[in-house]
Design goal:
Layout: H1 15-21, H2 47-55, H3 69-82, E1 86-90, H4 93-102, E2 110-114, H5 119-131, E3 135-139, H6 144-150, E4 155-161, H7 173-181, E5 186-190, H8 195-198, E6 208-212, E7 226-230, H9 232-246, H10 252-262, H11 265-284, E8 291-293, H12 303-309, E9 316-320, H13 324-334, E10 339-340, E11 350-352, H14 364-370, E12 376-380, H15 386-398
Parallel strand pairs: 2-3, 2-4, 4-5, 5-6, 10-11
Antiparallel strand pairs: 1-7, 6-7, 8-9, 9-12, 11-12
Helix pairs in contact: 1-3, 3-10, 4-5, 11-15, 13-15
Length: about 400
């Protein structure tokens, strides 16, 4: 196989260019699109060649459970985008989160994480890790004092997502990294809401970044995928063998779909972010909306942190209705263009009610502590014309009969 560097010394390109060309491998057939290698295993010219491959003396592929050319291209392209030395792909975002934590901890270790995170991530930290002797402490992620108080000499890792799901709270990554590194802990950041285009955790002091590629990276509701990015040393020491032996493998077909999706990621995220900002401003003006949370607005609770560590806002908008679950359901059900779904980052605009979907396993008290009210809706803004989305939201709010329509849209 040949690579782009075969025609001269490799150079670094800007993100949009890397997402079209980065990490490519070309077969002797000279294909334009990346090749899809739907194969379980690989053959060797001789037994000695197989031995060398298994010893690591020959860097070729062995078995698609832990190495495949199409998956390798996706990993290389993601590493270029993130500014990471290395990456490993997984079957889903939760496989990436779970592997990134489990591969580096053992009984007697300790993990710290904010209480505000996706329900499945909280399950891993709060329920799963303690089953295997790894203690965990959940804190207010916005509080530097709580981070400092929570870490211990045996804290091996800290995990955080920022912005958080669904309240869009923003955690100061540089602050957390300083606190964690003081006790030798690894900082793992779930960057899915910001995308690698709007926030660079590794530049802010994080050690490991994880994504659900199912979200913006695919961006069209087609397949599952995840990826873990870090230094070559960390992946070699902790992650590589863990993935090799436990097998949360990304399908080569899904890797190929994700490779093609990365080509349009900057266009999609830019459009979605611009539309989300307009929608957030519109919702903030409505008398039928009691609260709007959006990282690009000056009234965001961590607006100063947003300015320091994010290059843009988000494709997500969270808003609340004062009438609780009944009003939230009424608005969601009245939407015609925006669809009800718990996914996000899609080309289609999607809305979900976190209290009864993504965070339903939490107790009412835990949801209240996180600020997840019964009247809260999380809106993932898609690629539709923003004026059509505004009109859809305007009509749904007007259906409540509380004078939501305050201006013409379009």
């Amino acid at each position: 196989m040949s690579t782009p560097s075969d025609r001269g010394a490799p150079r670094r390109y800007r993100p949009a260019t890397e997402l079209v060309h980065g990490g490519g491998l070309r077969t002797p057939f000279g294909e334009t699109s990346e090749a899809l290698f739907l194969t379980q295993g690989f053959v060797y010219e001789t037994s000695a060649a197989a031995e060398a491959r298994f010893k690591g003396e020959d860097p070729g592929f062995i078995y698609s459970r832990f190495s495949n050319p199409t998956v390798a291209m996706f990993e290389s392209r993601m590493a270029l985008l993130e500014g990471a030395e290395d990456a490993r792909a997984t079957a889903s975002g939760m496989a990436a989160v779970t592997a990134a934590l489990l591969c580096q901890v053992r009984a007697g270790d300790h993990v710290v994480a904010p209480k505000a995170m996706f329900g499945s991530c909280r399950y891993v930290v709060e329920d799963l890790l303690p089953r295997y002797g790894v203690a965990s402490t959940l804190i207010d992620g916005a509080s530097a004092d709580q981070w400092r108080a929570a870490v211990r000499p045996n804290t091996r890792a800290v995990f955080l997502e920022t912005p958080t799901n669904p309240t869009l709270e923003v955690v100061d990554i540089a602050m957390v990294a300083e606190v964690a590194h003081a006790v030798g802990a690894t900082v793992v950041v779930d960057n899915v809401f910001a995308t690698p285009l709007q926030q660079k955790p590794l530049e802010l002091g994080a050690d490991v970044v994880v994504y659900s590629a199912t979200k913006h990276i695919d961006g069209q509701g087609r397949c599952l995928g995840g990826v873990v990015l870090s230094s070559k040393a960390w992946i070699a020491e902790h992650l590589h063998n863990f993935l090799r032996q436990t097998g949360p493998s990304l399908s080569p077909f899904n890797a190929w779909v994700l490779l093609k999706a990365l080509e349009t990621l900057p266009l999609r995220v830019e459009r979605q972010t611009t539309s989300a900002a307009r929608i957030a401003d519109f919702l903030a003006e409505q008398p039928g909306v009691s609260r709007v949370i959006y990282p690009g607005r000056a009234d965001h609770p961590q607006a100063e942190v947003v300015k320091r560590q994010m290059k843009g806002g988000s494709t997500l908008v969270t808003f609340e209705l004062p009438g609780g679950k009944a009003e939230a359901f009424a608005v969601a059900d009245a939407l015609r263009l925006v669809k009800i779904s718990n996914n996000l980052g899609d080309a289609k605009s999607l809305v979900t009610h976190p209290a009864t979907t993504t965070h339903q396993r939490l107790s009412p008290e835990a949801r209240a502590e996180l600020g997840i009210t019964d009247g809260m809706l999380r809106l993932s803004v898609g690629l539709e014309d923003v004026d059509d989305l505004l009109e859809d939201l305007d009509a749904a709010l007007a259906a409540l009969g509380r004078g939501a329509r305050v201006r013409a849209v379009g």
